[in-house]
Amino acid sequence: MAGNVVTGEMVEELILSGADIIKVGIGPGSVCTTRKKTGVGYPQLSAVMECADAAHGLKGHIISDGGCSCPGDVAKAFGAGADFVMLGGMLAGHSESGGELIERDGKKYKLFYGMSSEMAMKKYA
Description:
The protein has 6 helices and 6 strands. By secondary structure, it is an alpha/beta fold. The relative contact order is 0.17.
């Protein structure tokens, strides 16, 4: 598995280099700040369509990573050609999900952050 990318050209490069599954998406995640901080990103539906065509032509697969906030978004990702869909934000608050449980003023919350966040960099670096 390799990624994240948003162009068919990069999908082809990664598959030809040995990856069989490519993660697609830069900036669409529910807690992602990449677009705001860097000005870089690409519409997720367009990225999935372009990358799926490239991957499937080389017998590879793609994961749509980000941009799903309701079941319709998942259906759109599959309709655009995704083989798999990541649902971080949609599932993050459930009691079964991973993450630290925080309680404030009698309410419970799950700590949820993007993998390029400062918290993730400190935790996993």
